[in-house]
Amino acid sequence: MLWLRSTLYMLGWAINTMLVAVACMFALPLPYRIRYKLVTYWSDFSLRWLEITCGLKTQVIGTENLPKEAAVVMSKHQSAMETMALQRLLPFTAWVVKRELLWIPFFGWGLWSVRPIAINRSNRAEAGRQLIEQGSARLKSGAWIVIFPEGSRIAAGKRGKYKQGGARLASALGVPVVPVAVNSGEFWPRNGFLKHPGTATVSIGPAIPTAGKTVEQVRAEVEGWIEAEMVRISGVGPCWPHNTEPQQVHGPLAA
Predict the structure, then answer these.
(1) Minimal CA–CA distance to 148: which of 186, 111, 116, 179?
(2) 206 lies in a domain?
(3) Per-10-residue mean pLDDT for the chain, 255 residues long?
(4) How many Å apart are CA 50 and CA 48, to the nearest integer?
(5) If 0-12 CB within 10 Å is exposed, 13-18 middle and 19+ buried, where does residue 125 land?
């Protein structure tokens, strides 16, 4: 049944993705907000369809921690669930993505239509300049900048290296960082096809100020909160690696 339900989900997801991508192309002459609503609809449908077909729900906790003004969001990344959940939750987003994602037929077209910050990770100097320049413009337009500090999806029970890009961007723009922890990989494993029933958690932490702090201090605080929260919310899903001890958290917020 897992295979059948997961296949049904992917069929519905693929059809919806193609339709929304084509709609976004036709909507290019129209105001940006219309294209954004189309992509938000895509996220909402994808999550609802996931619940209907696979019995996999998403709960978001800590929404009271979101600042009133747009900020930089640094999130753990384990599956596609958190991207859809954050797209649905935040009023406007500008995703920091690798440039290659825009080359994916249909999916990349829809992503391109909502003005992501698509960086070339093979050129670090250019990527850093682009992140600050485009991030500033997006933030001034009211968009929340969303970045995955570990760079890509991380398997449940694992921990990647936190990069400084998001902390450097927030410090340069003088805005706080909102840390986000997720356990979605315990239900929808990294690069996995099967989706298991249950309730995945997206946990939003208190905003971390950047004023008066070095980039490294901001990065360390973000990592400390996310990894401490990962210990708290992990280990509840069917795909949790039970032969793995909960990770030890180090840093200023480990206690």
Answers:
(1) 179
(2) yes
(3) 97 96 91 90 97 98 96 97 94 90 87 86 78 91 94 93 95 96 96 95 98 97 98 96 55 37
(4) 5
(5) exposed
The whole-number pLDDT of residue 52 equals 98
Q: Using CA atoms, how far apart are residues 106 and 109, in angstroms rounded to an integer?
A: 5
Question: The CATH number of the domain where 98 resides is what?
Answer: 3.40.1130.10
| Domain contains 247 | no
> CA 225 → CA 3, 21, 63, 133, 207, distances in Å?
36, 36, 16, 27, 10
Q: How many domains are contained in the chain?
A: 1
The first and second tokens of residue 128, run together, are 């850093």
Tell me which residue range forms the domain holding 113: 57-233
C-beta neighbour count of 183 within 10 angstroms: 29
Residue 170 is assigned to a structural domain of this protein: yes
Asked if the structure places residue 29 within a domain, the reply is: no
> What letter does residue 208 receive in the DSSP assignment?
B
Residues 201 and 236: their CA atoms lie apart, in Å, by 10
